Amino acid sequence: MAKITLDNLAHSYLPKPESEDDFALKELNHDWQDGEAYALLGSSGCGKSTLLNIISGLLRPSHGRVLFDGQDVTDAPTAERNIAQVFQFPVVYDTMTVRANLAFPLKNRGMPADEIARRVQKVGAMIGMEAELDRKARGLTADAKQKISLGRGMVREDVNALLFDEPLTVIDPHMKWELRTQLKKLHHDFGHTMIYVTHDQTEALTFADKVVVMYDGRVVQIGTPQELFERPAHTFVGYFIGSPGMNVFDADIEGNAARINNVRVPLPAVYPFGSGHMQIGVRPEFVRLAEGGEGVPARVLRIEDVGRHKIVRLDAAGQEVNATLPEGAPVPAGADRIVFDPAGINVYENAWRIAPEGRREAA
């Protein structure tokens, strides 16, 4: 296990990058604490796999350094970093049995046969393949082969870090839940530093201690699932986390109120006038439907009953807005306004969340 430090790290696939836009990974400084489980979350092409491959040694960064427990490993090959990496698509030895595939990393390190047998049996049970341990990998399904890849990553107990690059893409939904549970148990039992790349917010939020949200090659927020949900540091985080995501409105900020479509909306505190593009973000849970009186004019488009709550889709001056109502709560028949709970409002300047005193909050 190791503390992983990213020091002024940045990467461009161009030989001579001339601007920030030429970098697939914008400058990043961060410590990945020893023994914590992280999820790298973002849409396709945001830089997640680039960052993971730099940490693993498959890619050398254009700028900056990677350190394991304070030791510079930027130029060290993957084999010297003592990490295990599981890729999106399964990599197995078809001519070997499942047992031999799982044992391969341990045999390479000269581990005693009885210890190899113990660990292989344990991991075989974790991935639900005890009955197939003596089958050849050839002919197994794609999800079975990916379970072997996961098992080969988990079979070593002495690694500095376990890196997972969207490892559950080919796994069926039920098995995904079971394997995520097993990965969390593995982390709890052995305390490995784990970094898990995914574009699926459910995978990220249920797996990780800390979620690292990436957007356009930049880390925009690192936090617990609760922090990401309650205080999105960037409008993308609010949009990407939650289903439906956060509603974002262009607004003029006037002290303790915002003005949207010329309607005054109370804010939870006093905010100074911003010189940039000002917006407010309100999660659907904090949007209330009203009939007449104060509020932003809106028209109900449709209602979706998803069991535990209703999602109300509305139109407010051409902008789609989402509101969620608790199970059993009626939708007012004449609803033509939306009102926001001030406690659930975040204020943004140029897409970044600002505190009431006007400081831009760090990612």
Number of helices: 8
**What's the story with the biggest beta sheet?**
6 strands, mixed
Shape label: globular
Could you report the average pLDDT, rounded to the nearest whole number? 89
N/C terminus separation: 26 Å
How much of the polypeptide forms β-strand, as a percent range? 25-35%
Give the total of beta strands. 22
State the low-pLDDT regions, or none.
none
What do we call the CATH topology of the largest domain?
Answer: Rossmann fold
Radius of gyration: 24 Å
Helix content: 10-25%
What is the SS-derived class?
alpha+beta
Question: What is the level 1 CATH name of the largest domain?
Answer: Alpha Beta
The H-and-E topology, N to C, reads as EEEHEEEHHHEHEHEEHHEEEEEEEEEEEE
Please state the second-level CATH architecture of the largest domain: 3-Layer(aba) Sandwich
Enumerate the strands of the largest sheet in spatial order, edge to edge or round the barrel: 6-7-8-3-9-10
* Number of structural domains: 2
CATH superfamily of the largest domain: P-loop containing nucleotide triphosphate hydrolases
